[in-house]
């Protein structure tokens, strides 16, 4: 018996009495593996054929079997004559069956099969075959290699059509293009050979160029030539696997460092390369071994902290803080510069704020300011908090009695306590939350006295930045990727007088949505106390410093008040252009109190008067009070110039610059109020030529003053275009295409040097004449966190305008701008963690915005799980920024099914947690 029933050619005979059935009735049973219904075979009555003695009936059945087998073999291979007739007959049509299965097509073979079947069924006795003995089928029959197919009309036809990229059908043959079929892509053999040949030639050219660079290094070995070779290998990889390319780069950098072991550029390339080749634990070991050889190397310490902080498995808050403490001590003992110490202090305090350890951060700030600036910061209770807040207790009771689910209760109580408990408690014994107590021993390892006391002003600016103060310009050049994580950095847009004020509401709503406590934005309940803290810190700094430094701090205070006025107008019901009299009176009283108690030099400072006039303009417009401020300032300046004795040339030049700034401010306000179609039609070529001349002269990137002047010159240059746009808008004139092209070129030049310049970003993002695709093309090369945030605001505003203008807009359908926002954020955050320029990838604010946009999809297509997509994105975001507490809180809101896992992660990382669900459950039951 064969192993498979289809190969069994022996007849199966039932043990019971044979049924009298005609051969014609079973003629359709041509499959020999089929057992007729009339036969029955039991296991206990079958035995092996070798063990059972053969009877005469058995011999007769064997003879009948032998007579049938040759005929079957013959029928399975038809003659040549029959095949030729079959081909001629079916020349243009497919045969119903293959030639190998022609046994059913021949009448002779059909008759023979019927005979064999009849003989097999009408056998007088059954053949007993054992189930344990089988034989090997060594005679393959071609009939078993064929499969019967359906005839032609039952098979559907598929027409393969090649399409153009835009969906237009090609007429004729596609010249030299790849043809895309239904399930696969076919490429011509010649094209494949040509591509392979081209790839070999390119690889040979790369090797030839590398050999040439190697020879030049052997002739004259310098660091720049090694770096040139490294950059060439980075730009021209030879392997399909990026890991192999990174290994080649690392081996080359290690060769270069053997020759120049103390070069900082090669060290930076080495630190970037090992991250791309080795796992995190091995990277940390390599950096630690390098630090043991040179404990005063700032680059090594910062790289060690960065890799420890940015790794999901390694980022535990106490461990990272120990690294900060150890590096600060080592660098201070080595007498490194104050600039390095300030950078480490800022990074450490930023890490504490993002991890939720606000009490520790403000303890560090208070200790540093009292040690290096003024002792008043540590004695008057500025950075101190009481134990209980009555308002906090009342709101907690409301939340606990609300009947909300536990995850929502925990999230709201956590945010509420974070908004109130951000300052350290310095009272007596505290039993409720010991983490609110910050002692001197807790912060003394992170704060050291400055060697040069002139750096105290920079320390004050650093403290203000840690408090999320909205600086108009970035005063420090080295900014970590994770520092700009607060939306308050967009508030300086309110300081541009030429901005489109209809966008203020959308801009402020966006900032309020992403704001995290503690903040002076009206997004949380305790914003008044935090605003008072910022104001008090600024007032103490203004009183401590003198001269220009005090005037700068006073100008910052006035800018903060102007931003708050814009906030008040954005929140008003009718979006009024001016403030109400009661609100304006309160602002004036507060500002006059600060001006009255400041230094006498600040009362004669023209930049202070210019900022004060802009504040009055924001409150009441170009009113009599606003004009009086500017006229009084000029009179005071003239009288002081006549009374003052002659001074040096530097002081005279500085006074002239202040006067020019004041006059320019007044002219801007006048142009803004009286702009019409008949006033800047004048040719701007002269002003353009003069500005280009200045940009050519101030062209030293290493000079900080020239960089500041270049940024201001670019802003004045852009302001000319904005004044012209405003004039055309007042006169209802269409914009010229040439002017728009010139504006985009100037914006590109500005963002090449200053990618975070808010003036240039605002001017191009909120331009009504630019379509979305062109806007993405302009800013695609200069994607910064600020640019991405402004693009999202612009897309949301355009979506709102589309919903208002279109009558047939259906709110239930998916908006195209929603998909554009998702594509923008997804593309911006696609860079890997090993990318050296992963500024966007390490920005927690962009990840939080992406999570919120993914969660807010009421019109998602069927089959698309919003919660599942949010869950996946959440864990990718935590992999990029595992230390940011705000990301965990947003994850609990956008992916509530992951709350228990998020709490476990927060406990594992030892982030600041003010409440736990078990405590809240007890409070709710009580």
Strand content of the residues, in percent? under 5%
Number of helices: 36
Question: Based on DSSP secondary structure assignment, what is the total number of beta strands?
Answer: 2
N-end to C-end Cα span? 81 Å
Overall average pLDDT:
79
Identify the overall geometry. Answer: globular
Overall helicity: 55-70%
Entry summary:
By secondary structure, the protein is an all-alpha fold. The protein contains 36 helices and 2 strands. A hairpin with a 4-residue loop joins strand 1 and strand 2.
List the helices and strands and how they pair.
Elements: H1 56-75, H2 80-89, H3 107-121, E1 179-180, E2 185-186, H4 189-219, H5 223-235, H6 242-259, H7 264-277, H8 280-293, H9 298-309, H10 317-333, H11 338-354, H12 358-372, H13 390-400, H14 406-420, H15 440-443, H16 456-466, H17 504-514, H18 527-544, H19 547-571, H20 581-596, H21 600-603, H22 606-620, H23 624-643, H24 649-673, H25 685-697, H26 704-731, H27 737-753, H28 758-765, H29 772-779, H30 785-805, H31 816-828, H32 844-855, H33 866-880, H34 885-894, H35 899-909, H36 917-925
Antiparallel strand pairs: 1-2
Helix pairs in contact: 1-3, 4-5, 5-6, 6-7, 7-9, 8-9, 9-10, 10-11, 11-12, 11-16, 12-16, 13-14, 18-19, 19-22, 22-23, 22-24, 25-26, 26-27, 28-30, 30-31, 31-32, 32-33, 32-34, 33-34, 34-35
